[in-house]
Structures are given as structure tokens and as C-alpha cells.
Amino acid sequence: ATRVKNIPSLKQFMLGREVKSLYREMFRTINKINDKYYQDFFRESVRRGFKPHMKEQDEKEIRVLLAQGRFQLREYQKTVKMAREG
């Protein structure tokens, strides 16, 4: 019989969903930027921000990182909005 390791708890699973949702929303927002150079710049910035924390297991730390990520997403959204209006 095969043994499954590291099955996440429901809390961990839900946090993981939040992280993935935030990541996708950041890329959706970045895709609204008309300038390819800036799209690439922000995409790389998001990847660099997420990558070091891929294996994070501490729930408190993940929540802190999610809060920081949500703040960054709002900043990206403001930037896109200003660029479209300006």
C-alpha cells in the first residue's frame, strides 16, 4: 500500500487557496498594464516575492505574508488605474 505524506489540514488547505488566488489576481492585474516592459518587470517582482516562501508552513507567517501581498496587489491596482486614466 502506498502511503500519502504531508496531507494539509483544512486550515492549511484554505490558506494555500488564498495564496494561489492572490498570486493569480496579481498576474491578472499586471496583464492590464499596456507596456510589455513593465508587465515583465512586475511579473518578475511577484515571482521573486513568492518564491522564497513556497515551502512556508507556519500559519502566522503565511497570514502576515498574505496581508503584505494584498497590500502590494492594491498598489498594483492603483498603478494600473492611474496609468489608464493618465
Helices and strands, with pairings:
Elements: H1 10-30, H2 36-50, H3 59-85
Helix pairs in contact: 1-2, 1-3
Short description:
This protein is mainly alpha-helical and 86 residues long. 73% of the residues lie in helices and 0% in strands.
Q: How would you portray this structure in words?
A:
- Helix content is 73%, strand content 0%.
- By secondary structure, the chain is mainly α.
- The chain has helices spanning 10-30, 36-50, 59-85.
- The protein is built from 3 helices and no strands.
- Helix 1 (10-30) packs antiparallel against helix 2 and helix 1 packs parallel to helix 3.
> Gyration radius, to the nearest Å?
16 Å
Estimate percent helicity.
over 70%
Distance between the termini: 62 Å
Order of helices and strands: HHH
What key phrases describe this protein's structure?
86 residues; mainly alpha; elongated; 3 helices; single chain
